[in-house]
Amino acid sequence: MDSLKNGLESMRQAMAALDLENPLWAALAAIVVTVFFLILIRIWRRITNRLGARLRDVWSTRLKPLRFQNLDILSAEDIASLLEDGLKVLHRLGTIVLVVLNLNLVFGIFPATRGFVATVLGIVTTAIATMFEEFVAYLPKLAVIIVTALVAYYAIRLARLIFRGLATRRITISGFYPEWAMPTFGLIRLMIITVAFVLVLPNLPAAHSPAFRGVSIFVAILVSLGSTAAVANMVAGVVLTYTRAFKIGDLVRIADTLGSVQEKTLFVTRVTTPKNVEIAIPNAMVLANHIINYSSLARREPGLVLHTTVTIGYDVPQEDVRTLLIEAAMATQNIEPEPEPFVLVTSLDDFYVSHEINAYTRQARSMPATYSELHGHIVDNFNKAGVDRRTTRRSETETPWHCPRTICRRTTNLRRSRSNPSRGCLVKRRRADAPSLSLPQFSFTAPPQAGSLRHNGARPVVG
Questions:
Q1: Can you tell me the mean pLDDT for 406-433?
Q2: pLDDT for the residue 3
Q3: Residues spanned by CATH 3.30.70.100 within the chain?
Q4: Is the model's pLDDT at 122 over the cut of 60?
Q5: What is the reported pLDDT for 80?
Q6: CA distance 346 to 336
Q7: H-type helices in 168-209, by residue range?
Q8: How far apart, in whole angstroms, are the C-alpha atoms of residue 199 and residue 148?
């Protein structure tokens, strides 16, 4: 920098030493100097153009894209464009330097502007010298930043190799499951980047200035206030990962959502429903609700139990119902023959019996289709066997009859007939060989033959 300043000063003194007090000679000298520098600028332009043409030929064959893992950060065309822009910047800087030299020499020719040239030249050279000294003084901190970045980069690469080995079971650690490998690597990588950033931050330019500190505090407040939900989802994602609640491909029910897990990240869990609808559930919501995993035990012996309930009247033999249900289950695809399907009687209601068919399957993801096929086989088997699954509140041994309105006035628990109020309430009359009818609130003996009930003066027995 001092040599450049001394060279410009010597040139200015040489021009001043000439006998240029005559304005005509001074103007002629200024024109000559300007023409000379215009020629230099033109030569500089040709040099940069030829250099750019040669570099383009090299870039088209030898440049390779800048990649990170399988992601192209910069393609070869992008890198070539950046290099061309750098060459243009170099050309413009050289042109600016030649123009400044030309102005310095031209203004130095005339006595009235020599002082102005010296002042401007001093300011420019002082600024350039200060920038250069600051850059030299910053080199140790720059070296610390570069070394920290390199150490962090290779530490991340080493961690990736280790955790990939754990994921593929080439490396085994007792109690460490393979599905934990990549999420743990993500946490380790985040920790390495955070430590590297903390080490690099004090070495950045103007890191200790009040403006930098103010901006840092403002950004920290914005992040802390705006990332509450994001942090909650991230923590929930970590918890779900290490609790092993589900894996990719499992059929799960999260709250009211049933579907297969397609993706599990730190923030959301993506589930595809049987209707081919993708639902993104925040991990905080997943952790707050109960999770039913249908696939976790389906992969083991004896498998997942599918069950459905059928209600059949008391007149159908229980053994026949059991046989029909087991045959329907055995005819269904994805149902395992071993262990054999079984039937449970779950309830005895007033007019029907509830039978539950249970069958094992290994195909949890096909559960909706398996249920549909099982229901179809049950309907077909019962129809072929002539079993009517419709349950009515009136047995085949009962025939409707009407009681006089005199009894309805004394009893409030019998419902009045809306179709024909004059005939009283519709109750049930049993056959002559049927036992006496017992109602919740009163009891009486049904007449032995059809016809209207004749009141013999006896009052109903109130229960």
A1: 40
A2: 61
A3: 304-384
A4: yes
A5: 78
A6: 23
A7: 181-200
A8: 7
Q: Would you give the distance in Å from CA 356 to the centre of its chain?
A: 39
Span 323-344, pLDDT tens digits? 999 999 999 998 998 889 999 9
**Taking residues 447-453, what's their average pLDDT?**
40
Long-range CB contacts (within 8 A, 24+) of 138-144: 138/205, 141/203, 142/203, 144/199, 144/200, 144/203
Task: Tell which residue, 463, 316, 302, has the closest CA to residue 385.
Answer: 316
What 50-54 contacts at long range (C-beta under 8 Å, 24+ apart), as own/partner pairs, is 51/87, 52/84, 52/87
Q: Where are the beta strands (DSSP E) in 227-352?
A: 251-254, 257-264, 268-272, 278-282, 291-293, 304-312, 342-348
Cβ contacts of 171 within 8 Å, gap of 6 or more? 162, 165
What mean pLDDT is predicted for residues 137-142?
90
460 near 438, Cβ under 8 Å? no
Quick check: pTM over 0.90?
no
Cis ω for the linkage preceding 339 (within 30 of 0):
yes
The rounded distance, in Å, linking the Cα atoms of 172 and 181 is 11
Dist CA 200 CA 194 (whole Å): 10
- Indicate where the chain has its CATH 2.30.30.60 domain(s): 230-293
Residue 20: what pLDDT?
57
For the domain made up of 304-384, give the CATH fold.
Alpha-Beta Plaits (3.30.70)
Q: Provide the mean pLDDT of the chain.
A: 78
Residue 5: how many CB atoms within 10 A of its CB?
A: 16
Residue 376: per-residue pLDDT: 94
Q: Of the candidates 425, 435, 426, 424, which has an alpha carbon nearest to the alpha carbon of residue 397?
A: 435
| Measured CA distances, 275 to 252, 257, 368, 382 (Å) | 15, 12, 10, 30
Give the pLDDT confidence of 94-118 residue by residue, as tens digits. 888 888 888 877 877 777 777 777 7
**Nearest Cα residue to 227 out of 271, 180, 266:** 266
Q: What is the pLDDT of residue 262?
A: 92
H-helix or E-strand containing 72? strand 71-74
Domain at 230-293, CATH class: mainly beta
